[in-house]
């Protein structure tokens, strides 16, 4: 086995699991390890990962701030599609994996590595998302998934391995973690342990870190405006912002008003159901605002076609097919439809609700003269009779039998 892999790029957080994986890779494969730590806005310092990697003898260490690229090239294109999985999930974890996979492959090429590795378990979706990304970008790459190979099948065994190999174990890792969390600038997911029984109500005081509950939110609505250009948000309250800065601001606004927490049971790609609590304050605000912007700028046929495409797009992304040609084909259609999704949406945030109060656009298709209930000279209501008779023809023929 020692000759099979010479150098591996590990997606490395600096936490207990990936630190154990780092040492395990060196021991099991007798190979060099390159660590890659991505700052996707998870809210924790990533620089400590460098010291930990250095302590474990790693010489090639990559720590990169990818927040702007993440939001600009992954989150915003996804939101142009209006993607929402199984009617509730805004795909916060799913959308982060393609970027990590892409950068790992790029680093593998830069460093001459012949393998990549991740810390996803053999039960979840992330193993699929990472590995489909790896194979799409580098078909011959070797992939090492320790959770599918090793015998460290419990927290106790991980800690014993860490202590045996002088890997520091934080005090908060020695007890059984109450749940598992994954975070980036778009969302925070909480799963497992105390959340596994779908009948047990989550302890939100323990879980929530990016937002308050609707019950704890202020009693006064907060009104804001969001400006869009070609389907992407560009400004809040008239202030232009970079993609990552804008999403962070929406997280702040939505979070303090109790917007964006869901408790769901979803269908994983591999077949089992899982229960999770997701915090997506900024994304929830953006989702509703974007829909409002589309409501006056998208023509009916284009909007309905886009709505038909959305579930397929969401499923592709959830299952890890970001780099698949069919996702890129759908993206091209979505981006074409978004060319005139430009203007301003006004909304209120209040105790978990996003309340649209206004929308305007230089490309608005809304015609007050056409829709007014007052007298007008642009629409002859008698025309509707022929329209109805033509549409009723097949129903009348059917009704004769």
Describe the structure.
The chain has 401 residues and is an alpha/beta fold. It has 2 domains: 7-79 and 92-176, 3-Layer(aba) Sandwich (Rossmann fold); 181-298 and 341-360, Argininosuccinate synthetase, chain A, domain 2. The chain is 41% helix and 19% strand. The protein has 13 helices and 14 strands. It has helices at residues 16-29, 48-55, 67-81, 97-111, 126-137, 155-164, 204-207, 243-256, 281-297, 300-319, 325-337, 368-371, 383-399; strands at 7-11, 32-39, 61-65, 115-117, 142-144, 180-183, 188-191, 222-229, 232-236, 239-240, 261-267, 273-279, 343-350, 353-360. Strands 3-2-1-4-5 form a 5-stranded parallel sheet, with helices on both faces. Helix 5 (126-137) links the parallel strand 4 (115-117) and strand 5. Helix 4 (97-111) crosses helix 5, helix 8 (243-256) packs across helix 9 and helix 10 (300-319) packs antiparallel against helix 11 (325-337). The longest helix is centred in the last third of the chain and has 20 residues, at 300-319. The model has no long low-confidence stretch (mean pLDDT 94).
Layout: helices, strands, pairs:
Blueprint: E1 7-11, H1 16-29, E2 32-39, H2 48-55, E3 61-65, H3 67-81, H4 97-111, E4 115-117, H5 126-137, E5 142-144, H6 155-164, E6 180-183, E7 188-191, H7 204-207, E8 222-229, E9 232-236, E10 239-240, H8 243-256, E11 261-267, E12 273-279, H9 281-297, H10 300-319, H11 325-337, E13 343-350, E14 353-360, H12 368-371, H13 383-399
Parallel strand pairs: 1-2, 1-4, 2-3, 4-5
Antiparallel strand pairs: 6-7, 7-12, 8-9, 8-13, 9-10, 11-12, 13-14
Helix pairs in contact: 1-6, 3-8, 4-5, 8-9, 10-11
């Amino acid at each position: 086995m020692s000759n099979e892999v010479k150098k591996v790029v590990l997606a490395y957080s600096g936490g207990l699991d990936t630190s154990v994986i780092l040492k395990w890779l060196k021991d099991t494969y007798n190979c060099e390890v390159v660590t890659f730590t991505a700052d996707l806005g998870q809210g924790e310092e990533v620089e400590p990962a460098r010291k930990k990697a250095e302590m474990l003898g790693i010489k090639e260490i990559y720590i990169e701030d990818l927040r702007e690229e993440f939001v600009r090239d992954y989150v915003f294109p996804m939101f142009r599609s209006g993607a929402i999985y199984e009617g509730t999930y805004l795909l916060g974890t799913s959308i982060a994996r393609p970027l990590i996979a892409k950068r790992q492959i790029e680093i593998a090429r830069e460093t001459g590595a012949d393998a990549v590795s991740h810390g996803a378990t053999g039960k979840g979706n992330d193993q699929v998302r990472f590995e489909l990304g790896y194979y799409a970008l580098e078909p011959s790459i070797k992939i090492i998934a320790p959770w599918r190979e090793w015998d460290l099948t419990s927290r106790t065994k991980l800690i014993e391995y860490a202590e045996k190999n002088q890997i520091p174990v934080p005090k908060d890792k020695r007890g059984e973690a109450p749940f598992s969390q994954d975070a980036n600038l778009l969302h925070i997911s909480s799963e497992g342990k105390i959340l596994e029984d779908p009948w047990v109500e989550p302890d939100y005081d323990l879980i929530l870190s990016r937002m308050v509950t609707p019950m704890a939110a202020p009693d006064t609505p907060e009104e804001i405006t969001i400006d869009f250009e070609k389907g992407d948000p560009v400004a809040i309250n008239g202030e232009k912002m970079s993609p990552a800065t804008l999403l962070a601001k929406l997280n702040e606004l939505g979070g303090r008003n109790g917007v964006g927490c869901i408790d769901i049971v979803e269908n994983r790609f591999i077949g089992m159901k899982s229960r999770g609590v997701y915090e997506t304050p900024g994304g929830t605000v953006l989702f509703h605002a974007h829909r409002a912007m589309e409501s006056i700028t998208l023509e009916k046929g284009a909007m309905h076609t886009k709505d038909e495409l959305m579930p397929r797009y969401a499923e592709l992304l959830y299952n890890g097919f970001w780099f698949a040609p069919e996702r890129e084909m759908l993206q091209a259609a979505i981006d074409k439809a978004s060319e005139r999704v430009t203007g301003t949406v006004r909304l209120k945030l209040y105790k978990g609700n996003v309340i649209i109060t206004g929308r305007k656009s230089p490309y608005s298709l809304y015609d007050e003269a056409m829709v007014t209930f007052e007298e007008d000279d642009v629409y002859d209501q008698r025309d509707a009779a022929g329209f109805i008779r033509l549409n009723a023809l097949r129903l009348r023929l059917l009704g004769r039998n």
